Amino acid sequence: MKGAIQVKNFxxxxxxxxxxxxxxIFFALTLVGCVTRPVNNxxxxxxxxxxxxxxxxxxxNISVWRNADISTSVPVRPDGNITIxxxxxxxxxxxxxxxxxxxxxxxxxxxxxxxxxxxxxTGFVGPYSEQIRVIGQASKPQALPYRxxxxxxxxxxxxxxxxxxxxxNRTRLIRNYNGQQQEFIVRLDDLVKDGDISANIExxxxxxxxxxxxxx
Length: 216
Prior knowledge:
Layout: H1 2-34, E1 37-38, E2 59-64, E3 72-75, E4 81-84, E5 87-91, H2 97-108, E6 117-122, E7 132-136, E8 142-144, H3 152-158, E9 171-177, E10 180-186, H4 188-192, E11 208-211
Parallel strand pairs: 1-10, 7-11
Antiparallel strand pairs: 2-3, 2-6, 4-5, 7-8, 9-10, 9-11
C-alpha cells in the first residue's frame, strides 16, 4: 500500500513539473510576440511601388496648352489648396499630378474649349502623412519627403549621419502597416561603421526613425 502511494505521488509530481514546463514555454512564446523585432534580410516585406502625392509646400508648374496667360507656377498652400487664373481654391494635396491636372481641366472647361493641362511638381515636400521623420541622435533631425526606393542609408546621408553619442544599433523604426503599428530594431552602427549592407532596408511612407542616445 505504501509503495502504491509513493508511485502515485511520483506520477503527480512528474505531471505537475510537466505542466509547469508547458506554462513557462507558453509564457516565453507570449513574450517573444510582444518584443520589438530585429531587422534582418527578409524580415520586412518588400516596399510596393509608390506614386508621388502632392503635399503642402510643393511647387507646381502648371501648363495649359495654347493658353500661356493661364499657365503659371504656384506653391501648394499650407491648407493644401492652390489658386491659378480662373481656378480658385482647388484642392491639390493628396493627389497625383495627373489627378490634379484632370480636375483643373474640368474646371477650365467652363471657360476654355477642351483644355489640356500638364503639371510638373518641383520643390518636393509631399503630404505630412508620407514624410520620413528622423528624431534623436541624428546630426540634423528632420522630416524628409519620401521617394521611391528610399533606404535607411539614404535617410542617414540626408540627415548628415549620426552623432558620436548615438546608440546606432538600438535605433527603432516605427511603421504603420495596414492600420497597425509595427516596430523594428535597425542596426545603424553595423551599416554605417562596418558597411554591413544586410542592415540597409527600404523605407516606407510615414516611417519614423528614432535614434537613441548611448548609455555610456
